[in-house]
């Protein structure tokens, strides 16, 4: 079978994979604190033979998609007035506890207190403080300071009777030391919790938006669709060439 079929097939399949990455980014254009996933193509030389002969061909390449990481460019910060909303300014992440009890990191600062009195994210992941997940007294008025300090005023208490509950854990590891999970959370590559970084700055009563550029994402979707069409056209041409060659052999 013509080797064009294999090269075109890899181009078509990888165009579809890259399209799924772009589609996921576009679907999260309004997700709080979302970090766009990066994707690109890379060419891998394809050798026909075992590599021991000078006649081995290396004139074609396979196409592979690579996801080198995430775009860590900060998103736009907008003020909401909600005392439980926080936005990380610059680099850094907030530590949360996943369902399996491990520590992960996010930029989504739209927090709330659940029915169990735990400070959680919009996805109901418990926010981690200096002593583990942060719990607040039932019915308390909760505020978050610029350093991540969580304070509460018990029901019926005067406005100056503020009790410090805990301090949110913020981390700032190198981007290369983090891996992105299917749940959108980041984790350290070695699985160990990152050290707290007191220099991480936050904006209170504010949220950071997604850093996805919807216009650029739409252009990428159109480009990937055209690349896929081109590769499928090559597959069709290769098939037609094979059929024509078979007919010539039958007549000979």
UniProtKB/TrEMBL annotation:
The keyword Protease does not apply. It comes from Paraburkholderia acidisoli. Pfam families: Flg_bb_rod, Flg_bbr_C, LlgE_F_G_D1. It is found in: Bacterial flagellum basal body. Residues 5-35 form the Flagellar basal body rod protein N-terminal domain. This is Flagellar basal-body rod protein FlgF. Its main location: other. GO terms for cellular component: bacterial-type flagellum basal body, rod. One of its GO terms (biological process) is bacterial-type flagellum-dependent swarming motility. The gene is flgF. Belongs to the flagella basal body rod proteins family. The basal body constitutes a major portion of the flagellar organelle and consists of five rings (E,L,P,S, and M) mounted on a central rod. The rod consists of about 26 subunits of FlgG in the distal portion, and FlgB, FlgC and FlgF are thought to build up the proximal portion of the rod with about 6 subunits each. InterPro entries: Flag_bb_rod_N, Flagellar_basal_body_rod_CS, Flagellar_FlgE/F/G, Flg_bb/hook_C_dom, FlgE/F/G-like, FlgF, LlgE_F_G-like_D1. Keywords: Bacterial flagellum, Cell projection, Cilium, Flagellum. Residues 87-152 form the Flagellar hook protein FlgE/F/G-like D1 domain. It comes from the Bacteria. Residues 206-248 form the Flagellar basal-body/hook protein C-terminal domain.
């Amino acid at each position: 079978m013509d080797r064009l079929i294999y090269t075109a097939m890899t181009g078509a399949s990888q165009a579809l994979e890259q399209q799924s990455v772009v589609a996921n980014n576009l679907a999260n254009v309004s997700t709080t604190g979302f970090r766009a996933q990066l994707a690109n193509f890379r060419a891998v030389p394809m050798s026909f033979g075992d590599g021991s002969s000078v006649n081995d061909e290396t004139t074609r390449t396979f196409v592979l998609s690579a996801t080198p990481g995430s775009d860590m460019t900060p998103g736009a910060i907008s003020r909401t007035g909600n005392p439980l909303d926080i936005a990380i300014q610059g680099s850094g992440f907030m530590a949360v506890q996943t369902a399996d009890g491990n520590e992960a990191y996010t930029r989504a600062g739209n927090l709330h207190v659940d029915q169990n009195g735990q400070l959680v994210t919009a996805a109901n992941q418990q926010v981690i403080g200096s002593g583990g997940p942060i719990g607040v007294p039932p019915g308390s008025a909760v505020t978050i300071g610029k350093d991540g300090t969580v304070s509460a005023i018990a029901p019926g208490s005067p406005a100056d009777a503020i009790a410090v509950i805990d301090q949110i854990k913020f981390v700032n590891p190198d981007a290369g030391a983090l891996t992105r999970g299917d749940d959108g959370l980041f984790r350290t590559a070695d699985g160990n919790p990152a050290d707290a970084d007191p220099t991480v700055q936050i904006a209170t009563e504010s949220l950071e938006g997604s850093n996805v550029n919807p216009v650029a994402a739409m252009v990428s979707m159109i480009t990937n669709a055209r690349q896929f069409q081109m590769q499928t056209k090559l597959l069709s041409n290769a098939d037609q060439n094979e059929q024509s060659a078979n007919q010539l052999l039958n007549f000979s």
